[in-house]
Task: structure prediction
Amino acid sequence: MHLPHRTPRAALAAGLLALAAACATPSAAAPAEPPPPADPITAEEIQAHVDVLSSDAFAGRGAATDGERLAADYLVSVLETIDGLEPAGDDGGWFQDFAIPPTAVPDDIDHATARNVLARLPGADPDLAGEVVVLGAHYDHVGPRGLHGGSMGGIGEIHNGADDNASGSALLLEVAAALASSTRPRRTVVFQWYSGEELGLLGSRHWVDHPTFPLEDVVAMINTDMVGRLLGGTLLVGGTGSSPQLEAIVARAEGSEGLQFVLDPPGAAPSDNASFYLAGVPVLFLFTGVHEDYHRPTDDVDKLNAGGAAKVSRLAYRLVRAIDALDERPAFRDAPGMANYWVPALDWGLTFVEDDGELRLAVLEPDSPGGRARDAEGRALAENDVLLRVDGRVPRGLAQLEAWLKETDDKRSPRTFEFLRDEEELLRVAVRPEVR
Result:
């Protein structure tokens, strides 16, 4: 149900799309159920936001491009319809501009600066309103020609980034509306949409280095990046080792919305939660997984699982409520390492996940060295093949595998991969990396 004084967001999305096209430690007691929002999170609203943000009119949302500006303006146009939200950027506005370092500037930018979009829902408890829970997502992508962070294919074509990360950006809009339409959280909740993530987490790093309110007030950060391809109800949840209280909250939340979790304790990842974790903030990272359209022009809205993204959005709402229900701020705990639930070996066209101690081939890019490789019998690799050895060595986890794939000085040397298929077939292929 929509609040009567608000423009329905789906209708707003459709109107703005047309405009854009024209412009070119936990308590032992059982936790209480979070109050339901008067404005529920629906697949239709998620779909409407992603329809807009991933349209050709936004031209790939590259940092510091006109497409990025259109996307930022769209986010603000929605935020302005949510009663109770306030701007949280520089000088009382919605934006925080930052310069892109010369070493990271692609050759197709339109502006000297990129911009973050920041909003705040003030807390209701005078004793806790000074503490802040941050929800973050990057809204930039790899730009009109795939140059802002690296195309995996199709350079020169628009990369719309429906999953990466229009999906996470839409999630934040929906959670903001849901929280604002229900009982106000005790703590302040700040929503942050970052630009420049694809160029090296630039927007989140800039905010951490130049916060618009004291960084020490942030009690936890939840990051959502690529949440639009839910498969089988399995959600990857990172950062669980960064706080014992967050770890317990996640454990209690499993099963809500029919979701089953794959937990990954490290606080760092190739996404914006790393900026906060390195600053000593407990973090969580919600992620539905890498796929064959990653950083390709084919990451389009027709492949969005809007219903799945709505489930993840409702989970994020629950997690914010659970953090807010803690009487003491969650304690930070060191959780070293890099996110281990997938390692994209981009030069090889192979992406692995760790599953019950086995390393499985999660995504095989068809037009890649790994995708073109054949064994002595002419057989190609396939997803779910289990990696046994690399150059005769048995990798003990994703971190070791990633280190091995980077260790040679001659980055064009072929490597021998041995896989097991269906517990009986052995495949041995030689793969020569493609330096991009």
In short: The mean pLDDT is 87. DSSP finds ten helices and 15 strands in the chain.
